[in-house]
Structure prediction request, 722 residues.
Amino acid sequence: MSAAQPADGPMAGGGAGARIGSVQTPTLRDVAQLAGVHAATASRALNPRMRPMVNADTARKVLRAAATLGYQPNPIARSLKTAKSATVGLVIPDLTNPLFPPIVRGIEDVLGPAGYNAWIVNTDNDPDREKAQLESLRSRQVEGLIIATARLEHPLLYRLHEQGTKMVLVNRRVDAAEIPSVTADDAAGVALAVHHLVGLGHRRIAHLAGPQTTSTGVVRARAFRHAIADHGLTYDPSLMVTCDYWTETAGARALRGLLDARRPFTAVVAGNDLIALGCYDVFAERDIPCPDRISVVGFNGMPFLDKMRPPLTTVSVPHYEIGTEAARMLLDAIDDPGRHSRSVLLATSLVVRRSTARPAG
Amino acid sequence: MSAAQPADGPMAGGGAGARIGSVQTPTLRDVAQLAGVHAATASRALNPRMRPMVNADTARKVLRAAATLGYQPNPIARSLKTAKSATVGLVIPDLTNPLFPPIVRGIEDVLGPAGYNAWIVNTDNDPDREKAQLESLRSRQVEGLIIATARLEHPLLYRLHEQGTKMVLVNRRVDAAEIPSVTADDAAGVALAVHHLVGLGHRRIAHLAGPQTTSTGVVRARAFRHAIADHGLTYDPSLMVTCDYWTETAGARALRGLLDARRPFTAVVAGNDLIALGCYDVFAERDIPCPDRISVVGFNGMPFLDKMRPPLTTVSVPHYEIGTEAARMLLDAIDDPGRHSRSVLLATSLVVRRSTARPAG
DNA sequence: CAACTCACCGCAATCGATTGCTGAGTGGGA
DNA sequence: TCCCACTCAGCAATCGATTGCGGTGAGTTG
Prediction:
């Protein structure tokens, strides 16, 4: 079938017809032709790992030809053959949540220099959508997954993990399996928050917990109970309300419930910043002065908190670093599949601002 | 995807060896074999556009075989052959800017149902990086580009556009070429802001303009001058300062310069919300009460502005809709290459909050 | 009954890069 | 002088899906 290539000879030049209006990008064969070698040789010369197999002079010629043509290997063709893609999937609930962009950037900043790219998908916390997205990622030959949507019970993730899919969880973990993860040290963070509040003189502290289907939600809630106990206070279950989502509206709803129950409290530790901001909405609704009557501590350290009214005291989480660390771990796992998988906890710190003060009276 | 794969016709099995630990995904040939037809026929049966070419019964058999195997076409192989990828490139400066996530979601929400996906890249406003990213997008066979990094002078974009690359600009436009774009009606927005301020009684209004290398920056600045004139005020060039970037720090720097110049003014129209928030930083530094001594209007309507101190009055831009509209336009252009390219302006609205008030005295 | 049409399906090439295998050529050692 | 080892480069298959072309069989018509 070499007949199909009238442009094979040295005269050639005809080659592939340049499409109107768009420049035909050179292929490996073009490079090979210009260098006067076979495509296979060109391929080996271009690939550093294979280069030792070709004569140094030949390699030079190929490299030069590639440079003059501005040759860029076609990643699609390469992926097809090698079943690799230099791409990792990044599964997050919703990019619109200010939590995620810094993580994404951290991931990309590590992936990029390593020659990898991230393919971002949103699941909106919808398991069906998540499944579809994961399927599509898999069919795109992603070499690994970074997942921010883990729930404690997450069979789909177990299955993938068992099938050998490389993955790293960020922000959250799963219950059963030993899937590597990168999370903040939530327990320590909550302890910091409670300690701060107790130090200010608060005795009746509420917790607006996040969804108990997520590790983050339960870990923080448990840490809250422990921290309360550690300070010699008695834990009052009625001061713990669970939010269905990590959102402002859920936070507002939870606080309203708490207020309406008329159990006294002077401070709240919110499951995250968004829940804390939901409290702000309720404060506005009901004319409750913060921090004068109720102090609030958030969690995460999202942007612009310093400009809120009042500036929100929060437990700061190094999201960018979560991203970089996760990406590094995933790359390690890809490079060396046998490697023992580990999970890391990143330190948090308390950022005291103006939403916390001594309790009134 | 069922784990057990009795699949693979009678003798078969030989074919591709199932990799350890991971289930071998079925290929078109597997489907064809199970259906007892040739791969070509299976391909046609699976593709709605080609289905009329095959017998209805055969098509049914193929569909059923595909279903039982859980067949998913390999998009890589398909892309290689068809030179299409069902993905579009999305070029933004920095995902971390709260402006972009809503746009991204808008884009994805339109692209998804159409079977397309978005490939997101950040350029950090670095032309070299941008060039590299665009190159990588092109090599991935993206079928079109949505670009949020346009500068007024942008030869790279001209070139791509001339080569027939389908693209839609969002948020910003370019000077020379007629590249379709989706932007907010910046001029009207600025007019709204100025009108509001003048209505409150302000006479000396400053403008902290965004970078004049971007259409957004110059359009808003020009609109500001016009709006001032339209209200019978005289435009004072010393009350216009240009920020180098669309950031808080740039905004703070600009305001400091303005303050230090000691030209009196009672209100500022900021180029965007971030610049406005930069003003807040300076207010804090210098104990300037806002809005009592200086009123501020932002631009964009980013999230959480209602919880700032003070809540920021701003010109709200429908970012999500910018995304959906841009995606629709791009899909149209892909479907019908001959179509006349248009540019759309989306309406803005003023959201009055507490950062603006009557001038003191 | 023969020739012709048409629907349907299979063959094989193709997209572009990678890689196992083979063969040509060279140099060295016995 | 002969043979072997070794380097290097080309051949062709392959990844999986798509598609132009050609062939087969059934049905139709003169």
Q: What stands out?
A: Residues 16, 27-29, 39-40, 42-44, 46-47, 50, 73-74, 76-82 of chain B lie near DNA strand D (CB under 10 Å from a C1'). Chain B is about 40% helix and 15% strand. Confidence is low (pLDDT under 50) at residues 1-22 of chain B.
